Structure to design on (529 residues):
């Protein structure tokens, strides 16, 4: 197959949602359609169970299983789909944010009963920041959810994105009768858990047709006609360019568990979702069709078995062809590396691959050479931008309990933070090591791994900070003055960038007001552009 055809038949995306909205269930239905799994329930093992929060080893064990399903590649109607998994647990939100840097679009699942939830908001913020095209799936229509119009309004308002309904529901809960496809003008009647086929479609070219009254009953048919008229009047035609630029999100209604409304979405997805896109780097824009390979590491998965300290780095191919055993340039280390056992994630198993194309994700065995954001090229010196660290929300001071193991501790902290488990800060002009995470669980992970993998025993004491802001200014004098006054709140991140640790929102706002010449950033990205 021609190189350009390989690129244009790829779609790389992630399904994101607030935990429990139905991400795992929808993923599974997609895989069933793609023939990548044969039975329902196969993806469940990938899910971090909501009740397991107190037992992180169980979570890590489950995460271990999830290596195989970190990327799920399957073919559907001759389109090669790379579905990147994101952890559902909120304490691993940063993993999810980083995975979003490696996709070209997302499907956002919203629970029709709960509407927009906390994680939905945060995830959408990241998508907005990156102008990622979003398709929305409003799930659980078989339950008594919010009014459909209210839901649309809530999502638009809370997520600051315009929606464009592609299907429209007829009732919800026990009265849920199906969806009308506004685009192809057909009605799909709800039947629980059937594999939708073309036979289930009832073509309704003209919505005044009496077939609607027969199928839905007079009352529901009347409501549907009114709804459709209203929706058509407000939304008109979907402009694909507005979707591709992240301004408008097409919306589908359905029920993932019942496999209802899923195929309509998947069919539209393969038609409109972006093929692998050009990406910004520190020197220029890199496009998929370029001959030479480039790619970046967006995730590192560690082996929790202390006898095998190997890790797997996930490389998103951005341009050119990745080939087994060929030398590529590791830009940060300025050295050439090659990989004899790279693997891909087709279907269920990890398969060793010979080559991969833009849009693909390749798993590379790593013995400590990679950190998040690392770039591979064929010699050119650049790195991909837009892979930020986000401000952590919980901070703890690291105290070494065993001075004989100081070196091991330092090494462990560096390696674990390279993997993106947490962020490491060093208090300015002191030696206090501070770890910042988005969730409590990561501290448990770090403490456990430091002990079991590096033999370093630490105590972690909570610090009263609420956010870390990277600070910059065109006036260095102002920064120096700020450091002098706010000594105890200043730290350096691993790359030596200055960070202000704010005790509360009030303190942060006060400092912002008092220091108009200093800029406070919530992501580290500012230092990479
Ligand atoms: P997540 O990955 O986003 O966290 O959600 P997941 O798919 O695991 O779904 C969360 C719960 O919602 C599951 O129930 C799942 O069966 C249910 N669910 C998913 N889609 C639908 C739907 O369309 N309608 C209804 N009524 N429920 C749906 P659970 O009881 O937590 O798990 P399980 O016992 O079913 O595995």
């Amino acid at each position: 197959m021609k190189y350009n055809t390989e690129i244009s038949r790829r779609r790389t995306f992630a399904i994101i949602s607030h935990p429990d909205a139905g991400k795992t269930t929808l993923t599974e239905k997609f895989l069933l359609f793609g023939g990548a799994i044969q039975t329902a329930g196969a993806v469940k093992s990938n899910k971090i169970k909501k009740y397991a929060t107190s037992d992180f080893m169980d979570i890590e064990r489950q995460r271990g299983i999830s290596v195989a399903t970190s990327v799920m590649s399957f073919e559907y109607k001759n389109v090669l789909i790379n579905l990147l998994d994101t952890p559902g647990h909120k304490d691993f939100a940063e993993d999810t944010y980083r995975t979003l840097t490696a996709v070209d679009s997302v499907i956002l699942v919203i629970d029709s009963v709960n509407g927009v939830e906390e994680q939905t908001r945060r995830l959408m913020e990241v998508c907005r920041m990156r102008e990622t095209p979003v398709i929305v799936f409003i799930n659980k229509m078989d339950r008594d959810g919010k009014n459909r119009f209210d839901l649309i309004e809530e999502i638009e308002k809370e997520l600051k994105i315009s929606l464009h309904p592609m299907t429209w529901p007829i009732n919800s809960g026990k009265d849920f009768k199906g969806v009308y496809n506004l685009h192809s003008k057909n009605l799909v009647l709800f039947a629980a858990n059937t594999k939708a086929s073309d036979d289930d479609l009832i073509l309704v070219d003209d919505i005044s047709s009496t077939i609607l009254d027969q199928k839905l009953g007079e009352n529901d048919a009347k409501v549907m006609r009114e709804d459709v008229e209203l929706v058509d009047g407000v939304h008109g035609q979907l402009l694909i360019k507005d979707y591709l630029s992240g301004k408008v999100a097409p919306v589908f209604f359905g029920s993932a568990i019942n496999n209802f409304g899923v195929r309509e979405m998947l069919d539209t997805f393969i038609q409109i979702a972006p093929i692998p896109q050009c990406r910004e780097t520190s020197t220029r824009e890199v496009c998929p069709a370029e001959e030479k390979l480039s790619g970046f590491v967006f995730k590192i998965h560690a082996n929790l078995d202390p006898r095998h300290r190997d890790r797997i780095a996930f490389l998103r191919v951005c341009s050119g062809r990745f080939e087994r055993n060929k030398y590529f340039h590791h830009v940060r280390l300025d050295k050439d590396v090659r990989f004899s056992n790279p693997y891909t994630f087709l279907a269920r198993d990890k398969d060793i691959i010979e080559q991969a194309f833009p849009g693909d994700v390749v798993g590379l065995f790593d013995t400590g050479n990679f950190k998040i954001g690392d770039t591979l090229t064929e010699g050119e010196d650049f790195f991909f931008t837009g892979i930020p660290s986000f401000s952590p929300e919980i901070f703890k001071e690291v105290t070494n309990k065993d001075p004989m193991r100081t070196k091991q501790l330092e090494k462990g902290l560096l390696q674990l933070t390279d993997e993106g488990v947490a962020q490491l800060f060093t208090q300015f002009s002191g030696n206090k090591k501070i770890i910042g995470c988005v969730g409590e669980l990561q501290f448990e992970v770090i403490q456990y791994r430091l002990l079991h993998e590096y033999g370093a025993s630490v105590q972690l004491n909570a610090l009263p900070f609420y956010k870390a802001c990277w600070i910059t200014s065109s006036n260095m004098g102002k920064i120096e003055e700020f450091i002098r006054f706010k000594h105890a709140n200043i730290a350096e991140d691993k790359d030596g960038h200055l960070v202000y640790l704010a005790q509360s929102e009030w303190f942060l706002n006060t400092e912002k007001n008092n220091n108009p010449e200093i800029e406070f950033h919530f992501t580290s990205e500012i230092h990479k552009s």
Q: What stands out?
A: The domain at 279-377 is CATH 3.40.50.300 (Rossmann fold). Residues 45-55 have pLDDT under 50 and may be disordered. Residues 165 and 177 are 17 Å apart (CA to CA). The chain has three domains: 4-68+86-172+235-272, 279-377, 394-521.
